[in-house]
Amino acid sequence: MTSLRRRRRATVRGIGASAVALMTLAALVPMATATAPAQAASAQRASVVLDGLKVKGERPRGYDRDLFRHWIDADKDGCDAREEVLLAESQVQPARGPGCSVRGRWLSAYDAALTTDSSTFDVDHVVALAEAWASGARRWDARTREAFANDLGYAGSLIAVSASSNRAKSDSDPAEWLPPVRSYWCTYATTWIAVKYRWRLSVDRAERSALKVLITSCGDPVISLPPRASVTRGPGGNNDGGGGSGGAVDPRFPTCTAAIAAGYGPYYQGIDPEYDWYIDRDGDGIVCE
User: Fold this and answer.
1) If 0-12 CB within 10 Å is exposed, 13-18 middle and 19+ buried, where does residue 88 land?
2) Coil/strand/helix, residue 77
3) Mean pLDDT across the stretch 170-184?
4) Which of 26, 34, 167, 192 is the most exposed place for a label (fewest CB within 10 A)?
5) What's the CA angle centered on 80, arms 75 and 83, to 5 degrees?
6) How many CB atoms lie within 10 A of CB 142?
7) pTM, entire model
C-alpha cells in the first residue's frame, strides 16, 4: 500500500493546527487512490452529481455493524485498513512498529484536534455503515459490504479523526450533523456526495436538501469523481458492476407489507418505478412507508 500512503500523505503533508492550514485542508477534494481501477479521471459540478443520486426514504431496519466485516488486511502486508489510513494520513513520516503499530502525527479535519497518539483517533467511515445500510447496502452481498467497510480505493471514503468527533457524528448524515470546523464543510459535503456516487447509494430528501444548501454556499465546486465501485446484490437483487449508472429496480412483492418485511421501500411517485406496483391508499405520493 506504499503508493496509497504517498498519495494520501501528499494530501495532508504540512497541514498544522492553524486556521490557515485548516482552510487549505478544506479546499482539498480527495482524489481516487492508486488502488482504484485504472481509468481516466473525470470531474463534474457537485450539483450535477447530487442530482444524479437516487432520492429514497431510508430504511435502517435490520442493521448490524457485524454485517460489515471491517479493518481487514486485504493486501496481506501486515496492516489492516485502519492502520493503512493512519500511515497514509500522518503529517510526518510515520513509523511502523511490530504488528503494524503506528507512530506519527495526525490532524482531525472535523474538529482541528492534533495528536501523536493514534489511540485517541478513529478512522471514520465518512458515510457511516448504518447510513450506507439504510441507503442501499442492505441489498448488497457480504463481499460488497466488506469492500465498502474497507474502501481504500478512494481517499475520501475513510478519514482519521478524533474519537470524540467521530462519536459525535455517529451515523448521522449532513442534515443531522456537520463538523465543528466550518471551513471543512465544503469538503465534507463534496466528499459525502462522491462516496454516495461511488457506491450508488441513495439520499433521502432532508439529506439532499442539506447537501444542496452546502454546495450552493460553496459556489457549486467541481468534484473529481472516484471510480465506481463494483456492487453485487444479495439474493433477490440485481448486480451492478463497475460501469453503468446503477439504479437497479427492486424485486416486486405482492404487497407493500411483504416489501417492507424484506427490507425494501419506501417508493416515491415520479421517482421510483416501483411506486406503480403498489396502492397509494392515502394519496401522499409514497408507498411502502
Assistant:
1) buried
2) coil
3) 98
4) 167
5) 125
6) 12
7) 0.74
